[in-house]
Amino acid sequence: MFRKVRRRTDGRRNFDSNPSKGFTDDLSRYPRRLTFYRMPPLEEITLEEFETWAIDRLKVLLEIESCQSRGKKFKETSSIVTPILSKLLPLNPPSKESSSLYQERKKDHYSHFILRLAFCRSDELRRRFVKAETALFKIRYQQLGLQEQREFVDSIDLPWEEVSEGEREQFRDQLLSCSYNAIRSTLMQTVDYQRTQHVTDQQISAYLDTVKFYRLPFEYVPELVSTRQSFLHLGYAYVGEFQRLSLIATEFSNFLMEQLQATMKALPTLDEDDRLVPVLNNLSKGYVAIDYKLNGYGVGEGDGSDSNDMINAGNVGQFVQDFPLCMQILMEGVQQNHHLRYSGRQQLSLFLKGIGLNAEEALKFWQQQFTAMGPGSMSVEKFNKDYRYSFRHNYGLEGGHIHYKPWDCRTIISKPGPTKNEYHGCPYRDLHRDELSTRLQQLGLEDDTRLGEVLELSERGEYQTACTKVFELVNRERIDSCLKQGVKVDESSIVHPNQYFDRNRYLDEHTEPTKTK
Amino acid sequence: MSNGDTTKPPKKMTNEPYKPSSADFANYYENFMPYKSIFLWLNHSQAPQNDFTHREFAFEYKSGAYQRYNSFANAQEFRNTVVKAQPVRFEVGAVYPIEPKLRKSVSKNMMKPLMKEFVLDIDLTDYDDVRTCCSGTKICPKCWKFITLAIKIVDAALREDFGFQKLIWVFSGRRGVHCWISDYRVRILDEPKRRAIVEYLDILNVKSKNKSGIALRKPYHPHVERSFEILRDQFVDIIIREQDPWRLDDRYQDLARSVPDYRLSSALLKHWKEDPGSSSASKWRDVDTLYQQLKIKSFDIQDWKREMIFKTMYPRLDVEVSRQMIHLLKSPFCIHPGTGNVCVPFDPSVREFDPFTDAPNLSQLFNEDETKWENTSLKAPIELFNNYVNQLVNDEVKEKRTRDEVKDNLEF
C-alpha cells in the first residue's frame, strides 16, 4: 500500500471481481490475532476498502477516546467498546474457519497502517493515536485466551529474564506482598471461590509458587513502578506473569510512537496516490461520527401510517425535557418567535420526524407554531403557501420522494453556526461559555466541578463528548439504578440528537417514574 | 562538611538574618565558587561536550529579574559570565538539542529538553502541619530531624530499589535539601518515567491534598515496609514528645477526624473538648482507650497508627520539581541570598548533615580567609564534591565506551 504508486501503469484500474490474487486466505501471514504491526502491508486494496476500513477503525478509536475523555475506567471502556469492536473490527478466535479470519486480520492490519499515515502528521495527532491504539491493544489482549497470551508474549522480544529459583527464594516475602492483591483477585474468579466465598493466605502463597516471575529494567514498567505493584531491586523490576500486559502495552506504545515519527519523516517521499490525499486529510480531521441506526424512525414510507402514534402535535411539547440541548433551544426559539429560519426548521423538523412525529401531526405542529396568536405570526394561507411544501418534502411526500434522515451531530456541526435570530447548531460549539453554563444549570447540573468539566470539553472542541457527559450527569441516578437491576445501558458516546432522546426514553421505560426534572 | 576541628566557632544560628552584600558575592564568585567541579559534574567528561554546552543555566539577580536560557562553551566562559553578571544565585536546567542561548534561531519544537539529572526537593515548609517548633522559613534542630529521616528513606529507595549510584545531596541553604542523581540511565528518562519514580516514592500522595486517608494497601510494599522500620522508632520521640502537635487546639481536631469511625471520632472530640490542653501522649493513649471501651470493630487500630506514623513523618516531596524536565534547581555551592549560607553538598552515609554546624556562612568563610577556600570550612565540602565528581567522570568514561560498543554492534 505504501509502495510507491507507479503512475506509469496508469494504474487506476478497477479491481476485477476476484480482487486478491495469490494471497487469498494465507493465514500464515497473520499467525496471531494480536500484533505489534511490525510489517507494513504490501498487497493492493481497492480505494473503497481503503476508506471504509480506515473509517471503521477510526470509529473504534474515537469511541475509546470518548470514553477516556469522560474519565471511564479501563474496564468500563472495555465493556463499552467491545460490542462496537466486534461489529466493526472483529478478530475472532482461531477456532473459526480461516477464510473469515484472514479477512478480519487483513482489515485490522491495513486499517492500522492507513491511520498511521493519517495520524503521523502532528505531535498532537500522534499522541492521540498512540493513546487510543494502546488502549485498543490492551482491550484485545485481555480477550485472548491464556494460551494465546503466552504465545503472543513469546513472540515479542523484550529484555526480560526469568527470575532464578535462588532469587525467588531470597525475595519470596517481597514478591508475595507485591502480588498479594493481584493473586487474590485472580483466585476470586475461580470456581472454587464461587463455592467457598473466601480466599485464604495459604491459597495465595501456594499460588505464588505456580507463577513465573521475570525481572527487567524498571524503565520498562513505569505503571507498575508508580503504583508500587512491582518489587524493585537494584534497578530491576520483578514482574509476575499476570502483570505482563502493562509491560507489553508500554512497549507497544513506545514502538508505535517511533514508527509514527519515522512515517512522518518518510511522508514527503512517499509520493502518495493523489486519490488518497483527500481521504487521509479527512481521516486526520477525525471527524467521523459513528452512524446512529435509527430504529425505523417513526414515519417510514411517507404516509406515516406505521408511525408511533404516541407523539402528536398536541403533546410533543411534553417531551422537550428528553430532548438534547440543541433541540430544546430550537423548541424555545420556535415558541418565542412563531418562526424558525431555514437551518433551524430543517434541524428540528427532521429530529421530530426521528422521534416519531408523523407527517400529518408534524404539519399540524408547525402550523400551530407559525400561525399562533402573537407578534409576527402569520396567516394559515401564508403558511400553506410558503412552508407546507418544505415540511412535506422532509417527509418524502413531495419532490424526489427522498426519505430524509434526521441530522446527526456531524451534519449539524459541519454546517455554519447560528447568526442572530437563529437557533440551530450545537450549543456546545455555539453558545458563549456563560450562556452554556446557565443552560446546563437549568438542566440540573449544579456541581461546579462537573459543570467545569463539561465547559472544558466544549472549549476543547469535544462537543459530542460534552453532550454525552451531560446526559450521563443528568441521568446519573437512573443509569445507576438500571445497572443495579442488571438492565443494560448503552454508554457509548452520543453522536446523534435522536440517540439522546431514545436513551432518555429507554431510561424512562426501565426506571421508576419518579424522575424529578 | 565539618572539618572536625574542635576549635571551630560556637554554633551559629542559620536563621539569623545575614544578607550578604554585593561585595561578598563578588569575592565569593571570584575566589571560592568551584566552577571547574560544577562543569565536570554536569559535563561528565574533561572535554566540553553537549552535556554542558547545551545545558541551560538561569540567573537570578538582586533586582528579582530572572534570566533563563544562558549557556556556556566551557568552564572558563561559565566562570567569567558569573563573575561579571553577579547573580544572587544560578540554577541548573536540562540539556537541549542546541545551545539554549541560540534558542531564538530555531523553531520552538527544537527546544524540548533531551536529558537532565533526576532531582528531588524536600523542604521543611511542607511539614508545617506537624511542626510546632517553627514554621515558614524558620528551622531548628528539632524539626531538622524530619529532613534527616527523609534523606534516610529516599536515599535507601534510590540506591536499593532503583539501583542508582551517582547521587549527591545538597543543602538548599535555608530549610531543605536537594538530591541530584546523575546515573546515565536516569538522565535520559522522559517525563512519564520521572513521574513514575517520584510517585513510587511519594506514598503520601502529596499532590492530591484533598484525600484525607492515604490508604496504604496491605500487605505493604517492601519500600513502605522499609520506610516504616525507619520511622517507627522515631515516632514517640519526634512527634509525641518533641513536636507534641495535638496539644494544640486546632490540631487535635485533625487527629480526631483522622479516625475512620464516626462514633469514635466524635467521642474523642467530646472528650478532648473538656481537656484541650492535654499532651499528645495522653491523647494518643485516649484513642486506644476509647477504641477498646466503645468496642470499635469498623477498623483496625494498628493500621490507623501505622498510617499516622506515615502521615506525620514520611518525606514530603515536590512532585513537579522531579517530574518536569524544564524545571531548574539551584546549583550546589550557590549562596542562599537570605541567609548567606553556602549550599554545600554532603554525604549522609558518612555523617548526618547538621545545617547548624556543617553549612558555612559567607561571613564565617571570610573570617577564616578572604581569598583561599583551602583555608576555610568550605574545604571539606569542596573536596567531598571533587571526589564524587571525579568518580562520576571516570565511571562515565568507562560506561560510555560500553554504550558506544553496543551501539556499534547494533549498527553493524
From TrEMBL, chain A:
<comment type="similarity">
    <text>Belongs to the eukaryotic-type primase large subunit family.</text>
</comment>
<dbReference type="InterPro" id="IPR058560">
    <property type="entry name" value="DNA_primase_C"/>
</dbReference>
<keyword id="KW-0004">4Fe-4S</keyword>
<feature type="domain" description="DNA primase large subunit C-terminal">
    <location>
        <begin position="322"/>
        <end position="501"/>
    </location>
</feature>
<keyword id="KW-0235">DNA replication</keyword>
<feature type="binding site">
    <location>
        <position position="467"/>
    </location>
    <ligand>
        <name>[4Fe-4S] cluster</name>
    </ligand>
</feature>
<dbReference type="Pfam" id="PF26466">
    <property type="entry name" value="DNA_primase_lrg_N"/>
</dbReference>
<feature type="binding site">
    <location>
        <position position="326"/>
    </location>
    <ligand>
        <name>[4Fe-4S] cluster</name>
    </ligand>
</feature>
<dbReference type="InterPro" id="IPR007238">
    <property type="entry name" value="DNA_primase_lsu_euk/arc"/>
</dbReference>
<dbReference type="GO" id="GO:0005658">
    <property type="term" value="C:alpha DNA polymerase:primase complex"/>
</dbReference>
<keyword id="KW-0408">Iron</keyword>
<keyword id="KW-0639">Primosome</keyword>
<dbReference type="InterPro" id="IPR016558">
    <property type="entry name" value="DNA_primase_lsu_euk"/>
</dbReference>
<keyword id="KW-0238">DNA-binding</keyword>
<dbReference type="GO" id="GO:0006269">
    <property type="term" value="P:DNA replication, synthesis of primer"/>
</dbReference>
<feature type="binding site">
    <location>
        <position position="426"/>
    </location>
    <ligand>
        <name>[4Fe-4S] cluster</name>
    </ligand>
</feature>
<protein>
    <recommendedName>
        <fullName>DNA primase large subunit</fullName>
    </recommendedName>
</protein>
<keyword id="KW-0411">Iron-sulfur</keyword>
<feature type="binding site">
    <location>
        <position position="409"/>
    </location>
    <ligand>
        <name>[4Fe-4S] cluster</name>
    </ligand>
</feature>
<dbReference type="GO" id="GO:0003677">
    <property type="term" value="F:DNA binding"/>
</dbReference>
<feature type="region of interest" description="Disordered">
    <location>
        <begin position="1"/>
        <end position="20"/>
    </location>
</feature>
<dbReference type="GO" id="GO:0051539">
    <property type="term" value="F:4 iron, 4 sulfur cluster binding"/>
</dbReference>
From TrEMBL, chain B:
<dbReference type="GO" id="GO:0006269">
    <property type="term" value="P:DNA replication, synthesis of primer"/>
</dbReference>
<dbReference type="InterPro" id="IPR002755">
    <property type="entry name" value="DNA_primase_S"/>
</dbReference>
<comment type="similarity">
    <text>Belongs to the eukaryotic-type primase small subunit family.</text>
</comment>
<keyword id="KW-0862">Zinc</keyword>
<dbReference type="GO" id="GO:0005658">
    <property type="term" value="C:alpha DNA polymerase:primase complex"/>
</dbReference>
<dbReference type="Pfam" id="PF01896">
    <property type="entry name" value="DNA_primase_S"/>
</dbReference>
<keyword id="KW-0808">Transferase</keyword>
<dbReference type="GO" id="GO:0003899">
    <property type="term" value="F:DNA-directed RNA polymerase activity"/>
</dbReference>
<keyword id="KW-0548">Nucleotidyltransferase</keyword>
<dbReference type="InterPro" id="IPR014052">
    <property type="entry name" value="DNA_primase_ssu_euk/arc"/>
</dbReference>
<dbReference type="GO" id="GO:0046872">
    <property type="term" value="F:metal ion binding"/>
</dbReference>
<keyword id="KW-0804">Transcription</keyword>
<keyword id="KW-0479">Metal-binding</keyword>
<keyword id="KW-0639">Primosome</keyword>
<keyword id="KW-0235">DNA replication</keyword>
<keyword id="KW-0240">DNA-directed RNA polymerase</keyword>
<protein>
    <recommendedName>
        <fullName>DNA primase</fullName>
        <ecNumber>2.7.7.-</ecNumber>
    </recommendedName>
</protein>
